[in-house]
Amino acid sequence: MSAAEHGVEPTQTALAVNGPVTGASLTEKEQIIDQSEKALSVTPDGEEPNADEIKSLRHVAENLPLSAWLVAVVELCERFTYYGMSGLFQNYVQRPLDGSEGRGALGMGHQGATGLTTFFQFWCYVTPIVGAIVADQYLGKYKTIVYFCGIYLVGLLILVCTSIPGALESGAGLGGFIAAILIIGLGTGGIKSNVAPLIADQYKRKRMAVSTNKKGERVVIDPALTIQRIYMIFYGAINVGSLSLLATPYMERDVGFWSAYLLCLCMFAVGTLVVICGRKYYIVRPPQGSVITDAFKALWIMVINRNMDAPKPTWQAANGGNRPNVPWDDHFIDELKRALVACRVFCFYPIYWVVYGQFSSNFVTQAGQMQGHGIPNDLMQNFDPISIIVFIPVLEALVYPVLRRMHIRFRPISRISLGFIVASLAMMYAAIVQHLIYSAGPCYDSPLCDASIVDGSAQGNRIHIAIQTPAYVFIGVSEIFASVSGLEYAYTKAPPSMKSFVQSMYLLTNAFGSALAEALTPAAYDPAIMWMFTGLACASFVVGILFYFIYRHLNDQEDAMNALDADDPDVPALRYSEKREEEN
């Protein structure tokens, strides 16, 4: 807007701002006028920034509301339980009850343990689809979480009761374990698909706004950056919870598996109480009826017409002669198309999850092949969450702000690609460690042979267990880029009425990764496993490069896709509900 449009002559504005301009050249006058016009076009605080301000001002994130922190606490308790419990499964299943190879229970060997633990991971990431459908169509996210918490508690109770020494000696261990992991997997799946979108639902702003900070600097409050911060903190809470593995391996070794599982049961009960007692603080959105069913109907219309816009009422009216009576509008189809973009991006994730799954299965076995010097082999897993807890604040408080000050937008596609590449470094390092194990005595490429038994227990080859640490650190850093960005992408690209379902599609890629890992189980023996690590390193690196070159154009479309939610987040859902009411 020019000065003249405000009823002020440009020369008067120049005088008011800079005093008389005696003898100034025409160019200088033009510069003064240009400066005054810019001053008058500045957006007031609280308003949306103009195009120049979006480009020139620094973008910042907002602080989280209290309700978001409460959801983070719930997730912390659930992850404390999940990791503290499942991190012991490899030893619980692999080693015998007699203690000849260290404390164990079921004695099914390396391949049997890897097979069952991998199945558990697979099951935990298939069941989120059930939780998503229940939440989006019937109960809503909050009620679904509460009900599935009850299922989870039942599974934990079975696990505790069948892991006590008397139950194991009577043969109840295997049946109880299988029943427990099936029920726990159903419970955690129902929670997983809903708790991640629930925490982001607590943040209300959907449009950018100009603000002046305490230092007097004008900045742009960017909702996309706040969502990124929410999921960084959410993931931090996950990994604080997973530090339960600092305690449960010692409880396993010194008391028994049942004591570690009981601790996990008690912690999850605390999380369930937080969910129930914090009900009045949460922003809870109701379910939208048969939205998922209608989404699949719309997808079918896209397929048979070979046109992404075919389900739109306006398109059908233009091509069929009349406006069809469908329970959606054009905006819903635009949102569905955006969700399909996210699902397409997720197609590469199974390779990443194969790599990620190694830290709770084959990495544990690898640690058991080295001399522990008093450190339980399943304790080493803690370096994964510790690295995440260390690097998240570094990135959030130092690296990302510096990049934003330099106006470098580190978009999700770039972060995900980097995560794949860092994960490949973890596998490469694991292969090197495995080679070092095979190069050390007394058993060389047959770790835990009879030559290593001391006082009735196999000690492993003569290489220190701490050498495994960097592999876990690489895995942790890769999670910050790949996994956190995946959660963020699943939320921001999902229609408001399908947040849980799209989240479950993202989690389903983990199940596919577990299925691939299950197929690799026959290679989980010495010395072939070293080459399996090498192959995974190459695969993750190549996929990371391909991912970037295939999807990098989506970085440029990020703001446009996020702008579909610029209105009140309930508006599209309400509009969708009104359409269904008209139909009925």
From TrEMBL:
Topological type in the membrane:
Multi-pass membrane protein
Q: Where in the cell is it found?
A: Membrane
Spell out the residue ranges making up region: Disordered: 1-20, 565-584
User: Which InterPro entries has this protein been placed in?
Assistant: MFS_trans_sf, POT_fam
Q: List UniProt keywords, sorted A-Z.
A: Membrane, Transmembrane, Transmembrane helix
Q: Which Pfam families match?
A: PTR2
Recorded hits in SUPFAM superfamilies, A to Z, give:
MFS general substrate transporter (SSF103473)
Entry keyword annotation includes Transmembrane helix: yes
What is the protein name stated in its UniProt record? POT family-domain-containing protein
Transmembrane portions of the chain = 145-168, 174-199, 258-278, 339-356, 386-403, 415-438, 471-492, 504-525, 531-551
Q: What is its main location?
A: membrane
What is stated as this protein's family in its record? Belongs to the major facilitator superfamily. Proton-dependent oligopeptide transporter (POT/PTR) (TC 2.A.17) family.
